[in-house]
Amino acid sequence: MEGSLSVAAPAIGAIAFGAAVATIPIVRALARRLGAVAMPRTDRWHAKPTAMMGGIGIFLTAVITIFAFTPLTRDRWVILGASSAMFVLGLIDDYIEFKPYQKLVGQLIAASAVIYCGLILPWTGSALLNIAITFLWLIGITNAVNLLDNMDGLAAGVSSVAAIFLAINFYQNGQLWETSALAAFAGALLGFLVYNHNPASIFMSNCGSMFIGFFLASAALLSGTGGGRSRSIVAVLAVPVLVLLVPIFDTTFVAVMRKLAGRSMMKGGRDHTSHRLVALGLSEKHAVWLLYALAITAGTLGLFARHISLDLSVAATGTFVILLTFVGVHLARVHVYDERELAAAREKPLVSFLFDLSYKRRIFEVLLDVGLVALAYYFAYVLKFGPLSSTPDWDLFLRTLPIVVCLKIVTFLGAGVYRGLWRYASIADVVDFARAVVLSSVVALVAIVFAFRFNGFSRTVFVLDGILLLVMLTISRFSFRIFRRLLMNGKGQGKRVLIYGAGDGGELVFRELNNNAGLQVLPVGFIDDDPAKIGRLMHGLRVHARHAGVAELCRKLQIEEIILSTEAIRGDRLTMLVGECAAVGVAVSRAYMSFQRLSPVDFGWVLSSDAPATPIAAGDTPLLHASRLPAAHN
Fold it and tell me: CA 574, CA 564: separation in Å to the nearest integer?
């Protein structure tokens, strides 16, 4: 029977899925009848009353299915018992709202029971340190999943992905009973997700999120009991961490950002990863799906790390961490806190220090480039020789890595790599990067010739290293523009505008609007009178014809304002345009360029940095309300 479970696990998951699909509507109806309904709040995302207590359906479905189809050893009894205790704790919290320290006491008791039974993360050689890490792991993941439950379908979907990857990990370890238990758990989550995905008709509440988080965290400890575990310590670390990376990342990110803002970690808010993705332009569904994709990618990498050498595991995980760091940097730029709140927080010494340090972008750039230089040098060796562990080439790589990193960073500094602004990276910067990479490669090569007489080294490695480093350096500096382009889907948050003029002025206006997310303005297209430009794309946006009818175009694209990037539109043409737009409630403004700033103005007023507001057209009364953008960057 043990061997047959490799086939039975998917069937058990399907049974749990079907049971959850049948159970959740009953729970939802009872919740509504009992008044267990979450009302909209300013610090919560949902906009309509929604039934709660979906965690009851998840708990009952998962536990009953596990009891019915898998035998319970002592370890499994302990995990189910402690997770059930967390469910009860969360259920009571849903009604009487425990204080944070009270919930923490309950979590510590449940974690102690698991650790007492010998389920410990074997991450170090110290038993005491392993126990401390396991406490942090169990409590941290439990609260991370609880915090991740901030948008329709997010916590349930990410948790189901984690459960599936943990089940695959158990199967590869030969732990078939554990595989079936995780399959049942994943099936229950997916059944709940049918009703919790956007637009959600029921929430899991604290009873669900605390049960899910603790069950996943404690189930991950069972991988240490399998006989098929990889001998790589990186694999031992990577599988549980990467499988649960999304809740870990979100909790860490929110904790850091709230600390910088002087906010309590326990205070709710719309400042999570998902909320910031929506603020950057993604729809709610797409933001959640993007985090699903991140969870799947991380889980795949975790399983991949089991079967590769130590050096490849470290390099692959390091690359992924760097990419995730870029995501965090971009998300941190989204303004979600009140400026007065931030100003008050900066008065505190510790917060002020952290805040100042976080804005020392040159420090970040140097540290990032240390990682990029090391990765480029490593992958150059791998492309030439394959995996390096336990080979003479691995020894050469390790001996020369400090020299290469040090000399290349110093050369980058002298070549001016750290003078540019990432937000405005251009082809000219790529030329500078290429010059710096070539110069740094020559300097490193000369140093290795003098230090090692180039014995055993390959010229191909240094050529590949230079190419890879240039690619990585360029992508990192263009990451701001790449990230914006990936998220710019025309359905984002902010005022939807058309730019009149698909020339140099139009491009300048587009860049200013696109580079300042705080303006909450979303360019969705261009208008131009030149027939040669009609239908073409400019920065990925279509150029529309003026003669096609501005009013109809504004209705079709849901435009709220048209910004004129050229002064050529005057007189009767301007009057006609304003009239067409006024008929559909669309504002018109003009962008004037001075040496100091780019300032949009309404049809009736000129706003410049060196002159007072001046009427320019249509009698004594301005036709439209004056508006103004912040100064352009010099």
Answer: 10
pLDDT value of residue 373: 94
Angstrom distance (rounded) from CA 158 to CA 597:
45
Contacts of 539 (CB under 8 A, 6+ apart): 507, 510, 514
Cα separation, 542 vs 536, whole angstroms: 6
Q: Is 126 left (phi over 0), alpha (psi -120 to 50) or beta?
A: beta
Burial class, 478, CB count within 10 angstroms (exposed 0-12 / middle 13-18 / buried 19+): middle
What is the length of the chain? Answer: 634
Query: What residues does 602 pair with on adjacent strands?
Result: 589
**Residue 251 in contact with residue 182, Cβ under 8 Å?**
no
Consecutive 10-residue averages of pLDDT for the chain (634 residues)? 57 94 95 86 69 93 92 87 95 87 91 92 86 93 91 93 92 87 95 93 93 94 58 61 88 82 70 82 85 92 80 82 83 70 56 50 82 92 79 84 93 85 76 92 91 84 93 85 62 73 82 68 84 82 79 84 79 80 83 45 39 34 33 33
Check residue 204 and give its pLDDT: 93
With residue 568 as reference, give the H or E element that holds it. none
pTM: 0.73
Domain boundary among 357, 378, 407: 357
- Does one domain contain both 353 and 450? no
Which residue type is seen at 481?
R
Q: What is the pLDDT of residue 542?
A: 86
For residue 63, give both structure tokens: 């536990």
3-state class (DSSP) for residue 498: strand
Residue 122 per-residue DSSP state: -
* Residue 621 forms part of a structural domain: no
Same domain, 375 and 329: no
Nearest Cα neighbor of 445 from 455, 454, 432, 437 is: 454
Whether residue 506 sits in one domain with residue 464: no
Dist CA 324 CA 250 (whole Å): 11
> What single string gives the DSSP state of each residue in 507-537?
HHHHHHHHH-GGG-EEEEEEEES-TTTTT-E
What pLDDT, on a 0 to 100 scale, did the predictor assign at position 99? 85
DSSP state, 348?
Answer: S
Question: Three-state SS string across 621-634, please?
Answer: CCCCCCCCCCCCCC
pLDDT at 380: 92
- The C-alpha atoms of residue 336 and residue 271 are separated, in whole angstroms, by 6
List phi, psi (to 5°) of 521: -120, 135
Residue 330 sits at the vertex; the CA angle it makes with 333 and 354, to the nearest 5 degrees, is 60
Task: Provide CB contacts within 8 A for 277, sequence distance 6+.
Answer: 286, 287, 290, 291, 331, 487
Helices (H), 386-423: 392-415
Residue 512 shares a structural domain with residue 464: no
Name residues whose C-beta falls within 8 Å of residue 326's C-beta, 6 or more positions apart in sequence: 476, 479, 483
Closest CA to 119 of 176, 164, 184, 74: 74
pLDDT on residue 544: 87
Domain count, the chain: 3
Of 270, 265, 272, 271, nearest in space to 100 by CA = 265
Token pair listed for 465:
């290293």
Closest to 358 (Cα-Cα) out of 327, 337, 333: 333
Host domain of residue 575: 494-615
Query: In what order do the strands lie in the sheet containing 495-500?
Result: 537-538, 541-545, 521-528, 495-500, 561-564, 587-593, 598-602
